[in-house]
Amino acid sequence: MTNYTKPFREIGIDDVALVGGKNASLGEMYRNLSKQGILVPDGFATLADAYWDFLDKNNLRKSLGAALEELDTKNFSNLNVIGERCRSMMLKAEMPDEFKTAIRTGLQGLVKEYGKNISLAVRSSATAEDLPTASFAGQQESYLNIQGNENLIHACQRCFASLFTDRAIKYRVDNGFEHMKVALSVGVQLMVRSDKACSGVMFTLDPDSGFENTVLISGAWGLGENVVQGAVNTDEFLVFKPFTGKVSNPIISRKLGSKEKTMIYAEAGNVNSTLNIQTPKEKQEQFILSDAEIVKLAQWAIIIEQHYGRHMDIEWAKDGVSGELFIVQARPETVHSQRTKTHRFTQYKLKSKGKVLCKGIGLGSRITSGYARILHSPADIDKLQQNEILVTGRTDPDWDPVLKKAAAIITNQGGRTSHAAIVAREQGAIAIVGTGDATQTITDGQLITVSTAESDTGFVYEGKLEWDEKTTDISHVEMPQTKVMFILGHPEQAFKYSLLPNDGVGLMRMEFIINNSIGIHPMALQHFEQLTDAKAKALIEERTKQYKNKRDFFIHRLAESTAQIAAAFYPKDVIVRMSDFKSNEYANLIGGKQFEPKEENPMIGFRGASRYYHPLYREGFELECAAMKMVREQMGFTNVKLMIPFCRTVNEGEKVVEIMKQNGLERGKNGLELYIMVEIPSNALLAEEFAKHFDGFSIGSNDLTQLTLGADRDSELLSDIFSPFDPAVMQLIRMAIEKAKTAGIKIGLCGQAPSDYPEYAQFLVECGIDSISFNPDALLKGIENISQAETKLKK
Asked: Which of 413, 223, 424 is nearest to 316 (CA)?
């Protein structure tokens, strides 16, 4: 009898021609990585010869080839007809007796290993599948919860037939594979009982930016098909690879998904034996994995990546009976690994914003505009014109022929690892997934603008908006001696910007994170029971319910957002400025009005250092300190330095340094450096005294100009007076730099002027400034101006 199957223990990565990429990878991991603690469910694979014999014994080669010859490969107008004809031939054919016997023998082996009443996952693996140049992901079918010999044989035949799904046929045409030279291997694997737990996917890099030092893990309750198909909005976790196994907490981001559906087993045995049910509300509000499980999966991902020597796209599942985690599939990542390393960087910026129709997870960092086309089925492909914007509930691999026509993709459901997200990346398209309501808020045929350039949130705007595109060739950018650093406040942009030439982050604005990621006044969390605003209390209860206490919500959210930026630039310096809200801005946070004074002029009132030791805010500052302690000690980011804003007197500086020490942030301990902003004339005039208590200065040129000239920087009436070139301001800046040099400490400047005015950069370079920090859109121009200034200085 022909040998039609092989157990996983006899299969390796070199067997792609025999069992396809998916099964070759499963065998490779089962055989080689189990000894490193990675659990892979056992199974067996049918060989390519079994597929060819099936065709030959049913005389199908010629008839299939003839049918495929009729395919319209230009417009694919008859794709569904040809696909249906091919699948029908395959399903009407008879499985050879030898094949049936081999399947039964393979199943007996698994029963002997795992017990009688086992369920099986039956997956298709094309012999050209999961190659580095073509993922083939999702092109053929998988069948879950299969039990018994006859159901298993039927599922195998269905897998054979799925080699001729419409999407698989078109995929082969698009990627240059000859239909009749691709065979189908079936992987039969013990089914992990993730229906009673959770499952998902993970990437060994950030799939959006290509940043290589993270593992992205996403998942939902139940079987993994919901995650892959984008049927649910998933939980997401980012783990910093260099620190995994080396620090107590390498998790730099957690995002709770709604996870509305849970796929479970239905009637056992046949090919339709799963059911999607509504996830109970309490489980929607829980994270699917513990911290220990997140770290274990990340460690496994790193081992798998190192074994294969490339970035990987991995499927995982947790067994709800045993509580153990398993790897159920691994394939090469096919977007960034195949993308030519580009040296061109394009920035997109809306000139104005309009009415927001909906928003979701944004992918692509671009902007486009076009007419929306709402489709409810891939059968409606003819309704979508080239470069229209596809709007739908969710997509699965059946949508692939449709997606290639779309200028952008917008879905109600799905996460960053869903099918729509992966296909959008492969095609370089813009996508917004997980909007929740795009098909309700957007009208079919409506002119819209899609922007994913503002943050990791994508926005759909009404009408056609105008935007700027600026492309720069960064391949020949030479960094000047003066350090060039970023001004950042949005963690989700950090990975993308870290790929630009830079020396780190000179100013990370903590208040941006508090406003965007937390939204709650820290004192309202410290004194929640004293809150008198019932609406604020209800909002706080809703936002903080995933945390043991209200303090933890603030500390963890602030720590993770900071860590994401610190990870993006590690080991370069990331200088975090402690919060610098004014009292009116703090009052706008949830619960804030009860804890803030009413001031006539908040700009020069209760802000910066004066808050940190004052009874009205000291406990809030302690939460900030706890978050920064977590970032540096538990998460390992000692590249984080801390900066104190708006410190009016030396005595005030001493008080703040002492409070930080009491809260575990002692200057010099574990390499901690403390900086101070130079934004008040007293800071420059007494710089040598401030230098005794701090390791560095950062000039805040806007506030320094405002307070030196007594001119409101936001007043149009005083715009002629407010000038960075005013002699008094420039004298104070020169004084601060000279005194810093004398004291032997670092000094930089944060602001727009050195990029807007070459002569301002020239002035700073001549003074001997150590670093200049820019907003991302001004960084490249700033590098150019500094380089020119240094060249002139050498002449």
From this structure: 223
Question: Per residue in 758-782, is it b (16+ CB within 10 Å) or e — as a string?
Answer: bebbbbbbebebbbbbbbbebbbbb
Alpha-carbon separation of residue 371 from 273, 383, 387, 388, 425 (angstroms): 40, 12, 8, 5, 21
Local structure of 53: helix, strand or coil: helix
Please name the amino acid found at residue 662: Q
How far is Cα 566 from Cα 780, in angstroms, rounded to an integer?
A: 21
Top CATH class of 477-794 equals alpha beta
In the chain, count H helices and then E strands. Answer: 29, 30
**Rounded Cα gap, residues 162 and 318, in angstroms:** 27
Q: Could you count the other beta carbons within 10 Å of the beta carbon of residue 580?
A: 21
Q: Which of 419, 490, 521, 556 is catalytic?
A: 419
* Chain centre distance of CA 130: 23
Residues pairing with 125 in the sheet? 185
In 3D, which of 270, 32, 310 has the Cα closest to residue 151? 270
Lowest mean pLDDT among 11-15, 521-525, 639-643, 694-698: 11-15
Count of alpha carbons within 13 angstroms of residue 417, beta-carbon side: 31
pTM: 0.86
Give the CA-trace dihedral at 59, 90, 23, 169, to 10 degrees: 100
pLDDT (tens digit per residue) in 713-749: 777 787 788 888 999 999 999 999 999 999 999 999 9
- 327-340 pLDDT per residue, tens: 999 988 877 765 55
Going by C-alpha positions, the residue among 318, 194, 192 that lies closest to residue 262 is 194
Q: Give Cα separations from 92 to 59, 60, 122, 185, 192 (angstroms).
A: 12, 11, 20, 19, 31
In single-letter form, the type of residue at position 61 comes to R
Residue 776 dihedral angles phi and psi, to the nearest 5°: -55, -40
Where in the chain are the domains? 5-191, 195-332, 344-471, 477-794
The reply to whether 521 belongs to the active site is: no
The pLDDT assigned to 132 comes to 43
Tell me if residue 178 falls in helix, strand or coil: coil
Topology (CATH) of 344-471: Glucose Oxidase; domain 1 (3.50.30)
Distance (Å, whole) CA 617 – CA 59 = 81
Place of tokens 């809306």: 350
Evaluate whether 435 touches 359 at the Cβ level (below 8 Å): yes
| Residue showing tokens 């996460």 | 415
Top-level CATH class of 5-191?
A: alpha beta
Judge contact between 364 and 496, C-beta under 8 A: no
Q: Active-site residue 419, yes or no?
A: yes
What CA–CA distance (Å, rounded) separates 336 from 371? Answer: 29
Contact call for residues 247 and 233 (beta carbons, < 8 A): no
In 57-132, DSSP assigns E strands to: 120-126
Cα-based angle 435, 265, 124 (whole degrees, multiple of 5): 80
**Residue 475, pLDDT score:** 75
Q: What pLDDT score was predicted for residue 174?
A: 83
Q: Fold for domain 195-332?
A: D-amino Acid Aminotransferase; Chain A, domain 1 (3.30.470)
For residues 606 and 593, what is the distance between their CA atoms, to the nearest angstrom?
14
